[in-house]
Design a protein that fits this description.
single chain; alpha/beta; 8-stranded mixed β-sheet; 207 residues; 6 helices; Rossmann fold
Length: 207
C-alpha cells in the first residue's frame, strides 16, 4: 500500500490543460474524465484475474477475466467528473455515491447523502475524488465505506497536497492512493496550491 503518483506523459499533458484557468467547462469535463480513465488503467494493473472458458469464432480456449466485482464511489460533486472515464474501462462496475460538503470555517466534512450497491462488501471499491486537499473528506468517506462493510478501498484522484495524502494514509494505511500529481501545499482556505481551483465549480460551470 502507499501513495502512488502516476506521471505518465499523457496524464501530465492533460493535467496541465485542466489546471489552466482559460480551459472552459466542456473541455475541463472531458479532460477530467480522460485522466480518470488513464489513472484507472494503472490502478487495475494488480487486480486479480480468474480463468474462464470462451468459445471464439475459431475454437474454444481458456482466458482471463477480472476475479472480483468493482464498485466506483465518487464523492459528490466533483467525483462525478471522473466516473465516466472509469466506467468506460470497467463497464460492469457498479456505482455508489457519497455526498459531502466542506464547512468553510472548520474545513470538516458534512455528510448529506450515501447510497451503495449490494456488491460493496465483496468488491474492490474505487473511492473517487479529484482533489485530496486536507484529506478530511476522504477520511470520512473511508469511514462510511468501512461502516457499510467495504474491505478493499483504493483512492483515485487527480491532485493531492502532502497534508491530505499523509492525513489519509496515516488514518488508513491499508488504503492505497493513486494521484496524477502531488502539489506543494494548502493555502489559508484549504485549497491546493497551485492546484486547479474548485473542481466542482469548474466541472459544472457554477462559478
Amino acid at each position: 500500500m502507499g501513495i502512488n503518483i502516476i506521471d505518465h506523459p499523457l496524464i501530465q499533458h492533460k493535467l496541465a490543460i485542466i489546471r489552466d484557468i482559460k480551459t472552459n467547462s466542456k473541455d475541463f469535463r472531458s479532460l477530467v474524465s480522460e485522466v480518470g480513465s488513464l489513472l484507472t488503467y494503472e490502478v487495475c494493473k494488480n487486480f486479480q484475474t480468474k480463468k474462464i472458458k470462451v468459445t471464439t469464432p475459431v475454437a474454444e480456449g481458456v482466458f482471463q477475466t477480472l476475479a472480483t466485482e468493482v464498485v466506483i464511489v465518487p464523492i459528490l460533486r466533483a467525483g462525478l467528473g471522473m466516473v465516466e472515464g472509469i466506467i468506460n474501462l470497467i463497464p460492469n462496475a457498479h456505482i455508489g455515491h457519497i455526498g459531502l460538503y466542506r464547512d468553510e470555517k472548520t474545513l470538516e466534512p458534512i455528510v448529506y447523502y450515501q447510497k451503495f450497491p449490494k456488491e460493496l462488501k465483496e468488491a474492490v471499491v474505487l473511492l473517487v475524488d479529484p482533489m485530496l486537499a486536507t484529506g478530511n473528506s476522504a477520511k470520512k468517506a473511508v469511514e462510511i465505506l468501512k461502516a457499510h462493510g467495504a474491505k478493499e478501498i483504493i483512492y483515485v484522484g487527480l491532485v493531492g497536497a502532502p497534508q491530505g495524502a499523509n492525513n489519509l494514509s496515516t488514518a488508513f494505511p491499508e488504503v492505497e492512493i493513486f494521484l496524477a500529481a502531488m502539489d506543494s501545499h494548502l493555502n489559508e482556505k484549504g485549497y491546493i496550491v497551485p492546484g486547479l481551483g474548485d473542481c466542482g465549480d469548474r466541472l459544472f460551470g457554477t462559478k
